[in-house]
Design brief:
The chain has one domain. Helix content is 3%, strand content 35%. The chain has one helix spanning 92-99, and strands spanning 3-7, 13-14, 17-18, 21-24, 26-28, 58-66, 71-74, 83-91, 104-106, 109-111, 116-121, 130-132, 150-154, 159-166, 172-178, 181-182, 196-198, 203-206, 208-210, 215-222, 242-249. It is globular and about 50 Å long.
């Protein structure tokens, strides 16, 4: 089943609402699934876990993939995100050291009070397992800090995609970052950037950094030195190894509105700053 996804740009904020914005739409798939998710930003009184290992994987600017888009006009209900989350990734042995024995495991995360399911898929379209140290062993929550975020184990050279599935009757804007860079424009992640629009009961698959309205550069795990963030002026190698997502509910005439709540704490490295599309990398000799 083919669904549509959209991108917004040029937001103007007024009275807590964002004025009309240009959005991009692209094709995505609509799989089945969901599960349970604990609140973002929950803290723990347990002793902190050891510092996360240095990243041994980054995300490379991969081969071109067809991904057509078009524009629509919409606006956010609020300048504040409804939810934010971060996922860490690394090679398997580093992830095992970070989460310890018998970690909590999931195939996806539920965000925005269960409205949106977020998962990371492998080349065959299967969800990659997400792992986190169990509560009492060093933290809890998705974006409460480096030591308590969920992590996934990647394999150098393999391709992956980000999937967001809307389980609700509300529309959301999705801003996604990889290694601290916005997947639409290649700039440092920011809440002021435009994003993709996810309509009710549809799904959005983000396959790579957007090169144009018709093409993206595939996400591929690679050595940190080959990562896009290490080979573009906007990148910062300190943000390699983290994937971020921020969700904004969009105004719809007939859609039921979800009760507002205080936004969860942000994972700073996922959105390090504040259009155009992502520029190609420049590898150092």
């Amino acid at each position: 089943m083919i669904d549509r996804l959209y991108r917004s740009r040029l937001f103007r904020f007024a009275a807590g609402l964002v004025a009309g914005a240009a959005m991009l739409a692209a094709c995505s798939q609509m799989p089945q699934a969901p599960r349970d998710f604990s609140a973002v930003g929950v803290t723990s009184s347990a002793a902190p876990a050891p510092a996360a290992p240095a990243p041994q994987l980054g995300t490379q600017w991969g081969e071109g993939l067809e991904s057509k888009t078009h524009t629509v006009v919409t606006k956010r209900l609020s300048a504040q995100p409804d939810d934010m989350a971060s996922l860490g990734y690394n090679e398997a042995s580093a992830v095992r050291r970070a989460v310890g024995g018998n970690p909590e495991r999931r195939l996806g995360l539920l965000l925005a009070d269960g409205d949106i399911e977020w998962s990371v898929l492998d080349e065959e379209g299967r969800p990659l397992p997400l792992q986190r140290a169990r509560r009492g062993a060093g933290g809890s929550g998705v974006s409460g800090g480096d030591d308590d975020m969920f992590r996934l184990a990647g394999v150098q050279g393999s391709r992956y995609t980000l999937r967001f599935r809307n389980l609700s009757e509300r529309s959301y804007e999705v801003i996604a970052t990889v290694d601290g860079l916005d997947v639409l424009n290649g700039k440092p992640g920011s809440m002021r950037n435009g994003g993709y629009v996810l309509r009710p009961l549809q799904s959005l698959t983000i396959e790579g950094f957007r090169k144009s309205q018709n093409e993206v550069a595939a996400f591929r795990f690679a050595a940190p030195g080959r990562a896009y963030a290490a080979n573009t002026e906007a990148g910062d190698v300190r943000n390699i190894g983290v994937i971020g997502a921020a969700l904004f509910e969009l105004e719809e005439r007939d859609a039921p509105r979800r009760a507002r709540r205080e936004p969860a704490g942000a994972q700073p490295s996922a959105f390090p700053a504040d259009g155009a599309y992502a520029p190609a990398p420049r590898y150092r000799k």
